[in-house]
Design goal:
With 105 residues, the chain is mainly beta. The chain is 0% helix and 45% strand. Strand 9 and strand 10 form a beta hairpin. The radius of gyration is 13 Å and the shape is globular. The termini are close together.
């Protein structure tokens, strides 16, 4: 998918409370933080098949609630074990109050 898709508005995206958008079965966590703005990453932990959006956001990281792996919201890289594989990061564009996401290939 190469086009931007509107996923929500800024007022529907409370700080540090991820929102999940579904792109034809691919779940993406949209996260707004004061440290790194609005970011979009795949919602599934690379270590276990659980939703990252259910985890805690701290700065520019999100924690998987099941085993405690942390992922950088800007790069998708794991910053804490047990995860060793990154999650995909997607491009976010803000237009007025609208939040758009373009999926990474």
């Amino acid at each position: 998918m190469s086009d931007f898709v509107k996923v929500c508005t800024l007022d529907q995206l409370p700080e540090n409370s991820p929102v999940v958008a579904d792109f034809d079965g691919r779940r993406v966590a949209i996260v707004r933080t004061s440290d790194c703005g609005v970011r979009a990453i795949d919602d599934t932990c690379s270590h276990a098949n659980v939703s990252l959006a259910e985890g805690e956001v701290d700065g520019c990281t999100i924690e998987c609630w099941l085993h405690g792996s942390r992922f950088d919201l800007q790069t998708g890289e794991p910053t804490g074990l047990p995860a060793t594989q990154p999650v995909a990061v997607h491009t976010v564009r803000i237009d007025g109050d609208d939040v758009f996401v373009r999926l990474a290939d």
